[in-house]
Amino acid sequence: MSSGQFDEGIPMPDERKVGWTVSQSQRLRELNATLEVQDRRFPSGKKRNEAFLELERFYVRQSRDRLLKLRDERRRPKLCTLEDTLIKALTNAGFVQVVTPVIISKSFLDRMSIHPADKLSRQVFWLGDKKCLRPMLAPNLYYLLGELSRIWEKPIRIFEAGPCFRKDTAGRRHVNEFTMLNLVELGLPKEEGRKRLEELVTLIMKASGIKDYAYASHKSEIYGTTIDIVSEMELASGVVGPHTLDSRWGITEPWVGVGFGLERILMVREKYRNIQRAGRALVYLDGERLNI
Ligand code: ATP
Ligand code: MG
Fold first, then answer.
1. Is 189 helix (H, G, I), strand (E, B) or coil?
2. Residue 148 has what DSSP assignment?
């Protein structure tokens, strides 16, 4: 029986307590109500509706206050400040920031062994036959490592933070455009790869303000296996080289690399119920819904 069938004001026995209506539930999700609030049940429709109005007022006021602060305290969106914080942390750790093209050639994807039948290939936004919006940073970083190997002595430490694009089915954890931070260190003793990867992950997680996370092995179409960093959801995937793809990019020494999704980090840190709130949006500004 749907909650809408209960008469307002009539107390219900416990087992028939009423939950939110569909539209109330949707509004509470929009306002990022906690799961506890979203699961609340009430003895009557009247009580539920009163509670809804009070909660809506509370969340709307909270969002308005935050948006006012954004303006009055000259704050920047959390996605930008997170990116800045991580850039500083990596620069302090001896990594060099690089800025590479968002539009890449098909040959770069081919060199990554991304085949037309692969899931990732079907997620690519093509610009004509030969170019696409980058779905990942790895090919550009691979290319640069090959070039820099001739110029800098090892270890070579570089990273990029910037937009990536995938036709991922929209859901709570996927958006079509997201911000990847990919770091890579080339030229370390092979046996130290995993340890070094964990040191670098610790650095990023600490700077991000994420305390609870775990490592998990994951099958990957491109890399065979990745070491994923998980905190409620996958936040990053790491690889300990050397890898069979390396020779195509002129890479001959062991390396480690890891790519973090900044919107996912923000989602976990800020307890956002969906990733859209953390990313590039018109419906939200810095995580706050604008239809308030
Ligand atoms: P998932 O399996 O969760 O779709 P993935 O393994 O395909 O992720 P990777 O290729 O490992 O993703 O990319 C590195 C990181 O980039 C991910 O761990 C995630 O944090 C982020 N990421 C990837 N795709 C998306 C997306 N569509 N929206 C938001 N973040 C994403
Ligand atoms: Mg992954």
1. coil
2. H
Taking alpha carbons only, the member of 163, 147, 159 closest to residue 87 is: 159
Do residues 56 and 83 both lie within one domain? no
Q: Count of domains in the chain?
A: 2
* Ligand 1 site, residue 246, Cβ cutoff 6 A: no
Instruction: Give the Cα separation of 237 and 46 in Å (integer).
Output: 48
- Pick from 53, 74, 95: which residue ends a domain? 74
CA 261 to ligand 1 center in whole angstroms:
6
DSSP helix/strand/coil, 243: coil
- In angstroms, the CA 200 to CA 187 distance is 15
Residue-by-residue pLDDT tens, the chain, 292 positions:
334 444 455 555 555 689 999 999 999 999 999 999 999 999 999 999 999 999 999 999 999 999 999 999 999 999 999 999 999 999 999 999 999 999 999 999 999 999 888 889 999 999 999 999 999 999 999 999 999 999 999 999 999 999 999 998 778 999 999 999 999 999 999 899 999 999 999 999 999 999 999 999 999 988 889 999 999 999 999 999 999 999 999 999 999 999 999 999 999 999 999 999 999 999 999 999 999 9
Q: Which domain holds residue 116?
A: 78-285
Same domain, 215 and 89: yes
- Ion ligand 2: residues, Cβ under 5 Å: 237
Position 32 in a domain = yes
In a domain, 170, yes or no: yes
Of 74, 104, 129, at which residue does a domain stop? 74
Q: Is 223 in the pocket of ligand 1 (CB under 6 A)?
A: no
